[in-house]
Amino acid sequence: MDPMATVSEWIEGARPRTLPNAIAPVVAGVGATIALDAFSWWRSLLALLVALSLIIGVNFANDYSDGIRGTDEHRVGPLRLVGSGAANPKAVLRAALTSLGLAGVLGLTLVALSGYWWLLAMGGLCILGAWFYTGGKKPYGYYGLGEIAVFVFFGLAGVLGTVYVQAGRVSWDALGCAVAVGSFSMAVLVANNLRDIPTDIEAGKHTLATRMGDGGTRKLYLTLVTVPYVLTVLMGIWHPLLFIAFAPTPLLLKPIKAVGGGGKGRELIPALRDTGMAMLAWAVLSAVALAL
Predict the structure, then answer these.
(1) What Gene3D superfamilies does the annotation carry (predicted)?
(2) Fewer beta carbons under 10 A from the terminal one: N or C of the chain?
(3) Is 121 part of any domain?
């Protein structure tokens, strides 16, 4: 008899703690768009729905691909539907393809209504990137390229795409926000892969963390969470109100202590959540500052 996951298990399988990675770039992009006097609520909403569909799709695709490879059999962390046996792999695959398909339809709608047809290429790359992160015969996430992809898709593409689809151009403010959000997103994944180094090595998954080692990965995380605040100072020279983005830095105290202090396994799980919330708070406050 095929396993039947509960609604709560499906919700957990969608990894709601990763949603800030999709919301933050759109929020930051909206702030930069308002600064360009080009804000459109419906284009912003469609961009947000595309980002949310993409991240849910990549989460289910990751669950499916890692699950059928056996990578998640001894994983430390939140529930994995396939790896835990809670759901049939085909059901998780359908959920992944449905989410990615929805992202495609919403993205096509946004492009058609805005008229910027070349953005279809970027949207197609985002969907392919979501699938081949852990899918296919040679998933790039298994070769240490996952962090770069997160920076590109949920940093540069997420922020700059949100701005361009509304303003028809980007700005230095938008680029600064894109690099900052991308660095935060990378930090979330670095913390995740730091936690999984032992099980990933055992499963033959060569993430950037397994290549850099425990110490190097911890230093990378600390560097990445510093980048957004360096950019805040630089951007604050022209927009002094941006210094309010320093307000949520206390959210990073616990994850910095956990990562910098040698935390392992389950001790690192809250670091993912807190880093994501710090990213979202930074994006919201930066957007408010740019809008004003």
Answers:
(1) UbiA prenyltransferase
(2) N
(3) yes
Residue numbers of the domain that contains 77: 18-291
Residue 32 domain-assigned? yes
**219 contacts: CB under 8 Å, gap ≥ 6:** none
pLDDT for residue 1:
43
Residue 268 has pLDDT above 80, yes or no: yes
Confidence (pLDDT) at 75 = 59
Residue 202 clears pLDDT 90, i.e. is over it: no
How many domains, in total, are found in the chain? Answer: 1
For 83-140, the DSSP string reads: HHTSS-HHHHHHHHHHHHHHHHHHHHHHHHHHT-TTHHHHHHHHHHHHHHTT-SSS-G
Alpha-helical (H) ranges within the chain are 7-13, 20-35, 41-69, 81-84, 89-114, 119-132, 146-151, 158-167, 172-195, 197-203, 208-236, 253-260, 269-291
Question: Which residue from 243, 173, 239, 144 is spatially nearest to 31, judged by alpha carbons?
Answer: 173
SS3 at position 197: helix
Eight-state DSSP code of residue 251: G
Q: Tokens in use for 262?
A: 């040698």
pLDDT given at position 203:
75
pLDDT class of 74 with cuts at 50, 70, 90: low
**Is there a domain that residue 194 lies in?**
yes
What mean pLDDT comes out for the span 260-272? 87
